[in-house]
Amino acid sequence: MKFIFDYLIKRFVKDYKNINSQDVRQSYGSLGGKVGIIINSSILIMELVIGLLLNSIAITADAFHNLTDALSSLVTIISFKLSNRPADDKHPFGYGRIEYLTALLFAGAILVVGVEFLRSSFLRILHPVSVPFNLISFVCMLCALPLQIFLNRFTNYIGNTINSSALKASALESFTDILVLSMVTLSLLITRFTTFPIDGYVGVVVSIFILHSGFELGKDTLDTIIGKAPEKEFVDELINSVLSYAPITGVHDLVIHNYGPGRYIASLHAEVPYNIPVMEIHDVIDKAEKEIGHRMNVYLSIHMDPIKTDNPETVKLREEVFEHIGKIEGVISIHDFRVVGDCDEKTLIFDAVLDKPYFAEAKEKEIKHRIEATITEMYPSYKSIINFDREFY
């Protein structure tokens, strides 16, 4: 099946290997949407005819479910096109978030359809109607399954290829369609061996699947619009990429904003030795911003944070302090470690980075108290000034 996928991509996506290009991403999204429209429309027509002929609420419900899927594929095409509009004076970061808004509107439409068919299914349970078994209809329903499986595999394949959350979500939804279609086909087969009015009950199950799909799509889209954290793989790649540039030794205060699928704006602090010429480190950081930004399709801004790396005492103290306070629950790392004062009258100044579940003020105070107690136990004559940082990703 991968051979067919690759053929379709090479045939309809120009410059298909350049997946960081927004135009290429749009072509991938358009191809996925068109394949979805063709397959879902074919199944829709087939199920609608069968459902009306057999007077089956379950089959008719799934037919309209495929109508929403076909519309979803159309929305995918439109949103990829609109989100690829260039930035302008009113929208300096582009229109990438349009894809999220259209997905949210479509989630509402799915919920409306689900509620309507849930109501119809309950009425069918209260007032059952006999659904006769028809061999031709059963075979047609059975033939629709490979089409749905193909759509699921293809959408997931291109979604992974361009790392599109929208296409991956569409693939997950099509997997639900496979389960629903299997249940509807099974219910049609059961009518051959029993007179029990199973049609309405299966219709309820199908409706629940529709409602679940709409709810999950809406929830995921809202999470993204509100400000969901980026994928861990993206964050790790960004941090490791920055650290690959010598003499950068550490990264902190990373903030990432999402302006649409594959469109990020990020800022961070890069720790560098204090005794390197400013112009030299500026060239390194400027190069990192441009190269990483181009490769990962992210607008990257790096702030230089000079630190002392040639003072053995400071290095030793930093390692000892983090070895102990790093064991405190909620503390991820420390940075900007400095030692002020002479002899035994010294003050340790540093920033501690907290994990997300510990952002509350009460937990912050508790952690600060534990850090101060730990430092006092280690160095009774030392004072400490602790600031807290949070990673916004």
TrEMBL record:
NCBIfam families on file: CDF
Membrane protein topology class: Multi-pass membrane protein
InterPro entries linked: Cation_efflux, Cation_efflux_CTD, Cation_efflux_CTD_sf, Cation_efflux_TM, Cation_efflux_TMD_sf, CDF_Transporter
Family, as annotated: Belongs to the cation diffusion facilitator (CDF) transporter (TC 2.A.4) family.
Classification via Pfam families: Cation_efflux (PF01545), ZT_dimer (PF16916)
Any one GO CC term of the record: membrane
Membrane-spanning intervals of the chain: 35-59, 100-119, 131-151, 198-215
UniProt name for this protein: Cation transporter
Compartments where located: Membrane
Domain Cation efflux protein cytoplasmic: 230-306
Domain Cation efflux protein transmembrane: residue ranges: 35-225
Keywords annotated in UniProt: Membrane, Transmembrane, Transmembrane helix, Transport
Keyword Transport: yes
Entry GO MF terms: monoatomic cation transmembrane transporter activity
Leader sequence residues: none
Taxonomic source organism: Clostridium manihotivorum
Superkingdom to which the source organism belongs: Bacteria
